[in-house]
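Contributing new records

If you add data, match the layout below exactly. Sequence lines come first and carry their own label; structure lines follow with theirs. Keep one chain per record. Anything else will be rejected by the validation script.
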Amino acid sequence: MSFIRRDEWPEVGELVIASVDRIMEYGVYVTLDEYGKEGFLHISEISSSWVKNIRDFVREGEKVVLKVLRVDREKGHIDLSLRRVTKREKREKMLLWKQSRRAEGLMRSVSQRLNIPLKDLYEKVWVPLEEAFGTAYEGLERAAREGVDVLLDIGLPRDLAEALTEIAKEKIKVTSVKVKGILNVSCVKPDGVLRIKKALMEAKSIKAPRGSGIKIYVISPPKYGVEVTAQDYKTANQIMQRVAETAVQEIKRLGGDGRFERG
């Protein structure tokens, strides 16, 4: 069971991580890893197709992502579904769970290093991280990438912020991705070179998330290379799109012409 738990019971519709305990003829008993409670997966909620052998879908000891259908707190019953979980939901929930476990491990390290009870770190660190970054892991990853100021800026005490940042840098491997593109930019005005330079500078100076980077360089006029680095491809592609749109719009406003193509 996780030491990070706001509520003792899951909500209806919530996605949960469960460990398969016992497989019966009529369904599966599981333990909800995040709550430490038993739940039941009826055979009718295992698959949309006919289930001849439950073990074709789940096995004892396996981790599965399930959706909560019903919760009866008085009887202690939690009914679950496997067939109502999409592949995307499964992938995203499993990733968040793994990240949450890693974040908890970092909290335990801080607890031992500073001799602070884990339950105190929940209020002092975990909650502020979730409120500021969406998840505690995201905040710790940002600290590993950008430094202690990320945590100081959300009001964490310096001793906690420094310990968290140090441990995060030790435990979290910071990765980045790169996407490339080509801008075709031209201007036949007498001062066309200056106008092109202004358009490209405008594109390069767009607001981008901390930890990302934009590089624009000459290939051979009118072609200019664009490289964007960011922590993930979604962010990198979003930045690239804004760079391209800004450059093309600006050069057209200045009397030139432009278009963008993927590298």
